[in-house]
Structures are given as C-alpha cells and as structure tokens.
Amino acid sequence: MPTWLGVADAPAQTRLLAAWEDAPISNLETCAMLLEIARDQVWAYAPESLDTLGAPVVVPGPAITTVPNRLVYAQLQQAANLWNAGRVASTGDTGGDQFTFTPRPMDKAIRSIIRPMLGVPSAG
Description:
The chain is mostly helical. It is built from 4 helices and no strands.
C-alpha cells in the first residue's frame, strides 16, 4: 500500500511532481498545507467506505501513513482542486491580483474514488 503524499524531503517532492506536474512545489509551505488539508478531508469522508461485499472498511487516521491506493489518489485530486479553486477568480482569470478563494465541497468524482459505488445485481 502507498503512503500519503507530502513534501517533507526530495524523494517525496519527486513523487508528488511525478503524479501532479503542476503542484505548487515552489512554495513548500503552501503545497504541504494543501496536501494536509486534502488528506484530512479524504480521511474524514473515508471511514464510511465499504468493501466489495458491502462490509464497512476500517480506514486508518491521517497519522497512519500506509493507506489504500484510492485514498492517496483522492488526496492528490482534492489537493489539485483546492489549489485550482484558490487560483481562479470569479471571472475565470487565474493568478496575479485576481486571486480569490472559492470554497467548494469535495467533488463527486473524488467522493466516488473514496467510496466506490457497489454494483448490485438486479433480481429480474
């Protein structure tokens, strides 16, 4: 199982850039905050996950480093969403003095990565 994404050292930064080439790695503090916030949001949503048989899945807290692939991927996607939300002005412009932050709930696609829909055969 993989570990949560971070920027603590050069290998972690290389791993992050391999997965997210536009990561704001030039500002390690901001990048670390984005990844931590995304990790915490994913973890907060994840405990209600179900396995393929519909049984509840125990998900480790954010302090635990080894997590399922889907949660690390969801962390990556949520961090990118948070970063993009902070860079885009209400007019659609990005960067510069147009900076605004529009808080958005976790994207439906990311929620489905964390809690996949279970296919249930119909009786018919």
